[in-house]
Each structure stands twice: as structure tokens, then as C-alpha cells.
Amino acid sequence: MTAKLKPISRVARSLGIRDKELEPNGRYKAKIDLSILERLRKTDARYILVTAITPTPLGEGKTVTTIGLSMALNRLGVRSACCLRQSSLGPLFGSKGMATGGGASRVVPEDEINLHFTGDMHAVAEANNFLAAFLENSVFHGNPLDIDVASMTWRRCLDTSDRSLRNIRYTLKSGAETYEMAAGFEVAAASEIMSILALSRDRADLRSRLGEIVLARTRRGAPVRSRDIKADGMMAAILNDAIKPNLVQTSEGTPCFIHTGPFANVSIGTSSILADRMALGLCDYVVTESGFGVDCGAEKFFDIKCRASGFKPHACVLVCSLRGLKAQSRKVTITPGEKMPSGLFAEDAEALEQGLENLRKHIQNLKLFGIPVIVCINVFPQDSRRELDRVRAKSLEFGAQDSQESRLWEEGSRGGIDLARSVLRQTRQASSGFKFLYETDLSLQEKIETIAKNIYGAGSVDYAPPARQALDFCAGEGFGRLPVCIAKTQFSLSHDESLKGAPAGFVFPVKDVRLAAGAGFVLAHASWMQTMPGLPRQPRGEMVDIDAEGHVRGLS
Prior knowledge:
ATP binds at residues 56-63. This protein is of the alpha/beta class.
């Protein structure tokens, strides 16, 4: 499906962005200068989050819904924009593919957005890796800060899925001493630098957060921060352009902000506060997304991002599909990177009923945050009318305010008019009833247990000794009031992807805890979540190429 692109200056003017605030990057994409924030005072815009049930490895259409809903709202005469996360080359060339939607609901130009875009991901990786180099350089040149080398936790990153770099060993020298170091790489989107970029409210906030990054401890046990090795200013300079949100357009010309791209299974999984701040100041409705399901992306969006931004969402659209619900039954086994079982697309009342328990739990989870829930059923051509009607009826029975079918992939904005009207109905009130799941004065353990028991369905939490030690350190150094970001599988509400539907009463294991002081949260790892993905047996990158004119093929 070919989209007719508008010059990015025209898209910007439709939002009221002035020429001096626009920094074009080619014909169809641009950065927005932060000076625009000085004049944006609009406070009555509606803020809509799109999330999903527990997804299959191919996703359930969350990005398509985010894009298509913003287009459908525009079709109804409402000034709207969408805010998305940036693509990572890791999953792009691996198994999941693009982060730009698809069909008639996508953002363009897809090849530029999905590949190098405006260089933000490169800047994040460079800032991250220079920080690692500065830390080791301080140790090499006499270790003036008396760093306990064994406590150095900072990892390098790159935007490539390469499992061989998850764990590395190297030699570090300091005077006459030689240390054998165990370290590793993580994917750039999962780095603390990316989370800092996403959660910064302005350039001063970015600069402050970069200085707060805790890298190691001294031999006396005190934290060593990036500002202690004088690396914070350098990182701010590297990220000076990357902090500016990027403006593109949808396949129907609706404005779209794309900025930052943390993974929701191992990080916060949202686009930036700055992108949302600009969109809310320019539009009547802003539609944004969080990664994976309610348990991964939405909970972190609410408890971490909204806490940092002060923004209160007015409604949540929960995306599901018949195939996604059946994948949560005990009758189906899905292997990431492998072909989806054909049984997912056949009518199967038993599998659907089992999978509906997953939908029920996600609706209940969203209602804990006090905002209206609209279930969006992403319809595929082979879907059964009887099963679609069953999902709509059960959605309302489970407590959703409404349930609508979506054909946004196939029909663009026309396929989401009923969904858009539902969003308008549910957000008539200017105020939001939004509330956090927990308050900051709870201990870190109490926050972890609140999430594990209320959102995941766990009966109890088990802490490995390294996790307990790290929690004690965080509390002792004054970080106990930070929110908690839990890293776990996206393929189950629990920590174990083999537990489907809505598991309950299980023991939730916390194996490790890491402090992300610059980002402003504590990261708790359930089991041993990988922050560096691997490639599947047949990576999608095998299909990508260019033609004689230089057009990129095979991304979709």
C-alpha cells in the first residue's frame, strides 16, 4: 500500500509548529527544537494509552491501533497525533519486524524510520559506551576514586541482536594490579541511557539525570556516579540532538512523534515524555502506546512514566485478537521465530474460552488504575463472527466500558471509526480518575510484591541473596522511594512463559536487582531475563535488500 507523503513542513504547520522550531532531516522527517516548550500551555488535551493482552511473538496489532486510532480521530474532526517508540535494528532484523505499524495504518517513510532514522539510537549507544570507557580509564590511571573493581556494573550496548556478546571477559589493569573482568553487552534500547532520554522533562533534567548514574562502589561501599568520573557533560553533548523528538506522518498524513525506544520486558517500554509533552500542547487528543501487555508496558507507563511526567491518561485501549487469545490456551504452543500454528486461525470454542481468562485479568489490571477501558478486537479476514461476538460480550462482562472491532490494518482510519467514537464517549470528562498502583513511601520489597501479586497474580515473591543485598544497598543509600521496573517475560502474565492464561498463586522469583538512579527507578530481574536478544533460526534480515534504484525491500 503506497502512501502519498506530504512535505514534513506541511505536517508541522498543521500542528501549529513554527518554522524556527522545525529542523528538517530530509523531506519527510524532522526534529522539533525544545524551544517550542516555552509557548505550549495547553492543558485540556486527552491522553490515550494503547496496550494489549499477553502477545504472541508477532504482536497483537498495538502499533497499528495506535496509528489508526489517531487517524480515525482526525477523520472525525478532532486534532490528534500519535506518539510511538523508535524501532530497534535488533528485532527489525530478527523475528518481530518493524515498529511502524502495517497495512493501511502505518507511519512513513518506513525504510528511513526503521533503519537509521535521525541517529538517536547511535547517540544512545555512543554515550553509553563512552561512559564505560571513562569508568575503566579512571581505574587504569591509578584509580583515584578507590573504586572496588568487582562492583563495576555498567555494561556496554549496541543496536544489534548478538547473543555472543551477552557475556564477555577481558583484562583491566590499574598500576601493578591486573583484574579479570566479567561484563557484557545489552541492546541499546534496553540501556539506562535510553530510559533517561525517555523520562527527561527537558535538557536540564537530562543533564542532571546523566550525572546521577551509579556505576560502581568504592572500597568503602559508597556509590560511584558518572559525575564523579566527569563523564556526565560529555554524554549530554552526545545526546544534545537526540533529546529533540522526531516528527513524521502516518499513511494518511496524521502527525506522528517518534522518540526513544526502551524494551518493555527489560525496561520501561515507552516513548519519551518530551514527545508526549509537545503533542499534548499541540493537539486535542494524543494516542500513545506501551510495549507488550498490560503487565509489562502499561504498568510501567502508569507507575514510572506518568509519575515522572505528571501526565494523567484519560482512557486505555486494550488490543486483543482471536489468535492472541487462543495462544493463551493450553491447546497451543508457540515458538518465537517459528511459523505460527495453523490452529490459531480456526474456530475453537474451547481454546477461546481458556484464552479469555487472559483478557479478563488484563481488564482487571487496568481498572486498578482508575481509567476507562475500551477493548479493541483486531480483526483478521478469517476470524469467526461467533467468536468475535463472544469476545465483545465477555469484554463487557469482565468490566470494560466498551468493546469495538477494528479493521485499521485493512481499511485505515475508516476501519476504526467506531473505536474512535468510543474513545470520544469515554473521555468526555476533562478530568482523569487515574491513580497509581502504589505510593512511593512503600519499601522497594513492598512495591515489588504489590506488582507481582496484583498485576501478575503471584502468591509470594522469593528473593535470591544477590537481590536482597542490592535492595538493602538501594534503601541504605536513599533510593528506597524510587518506583520499581520489573524485567520479565512478555509471553506470560507470570515470569514463566509456559504459564498461560491467568496463572495465580505461583512464587515469583527475583534473581537480581539493579539500580538505575539516573533513569529514576530500581530494576528487578525475574529469573534471568536477557537484555541482549538473539537472532532466530531464520532472521527477517535475510529478506532485506535494495533494488537498483536504492529502494529498500523486505522490511515489511
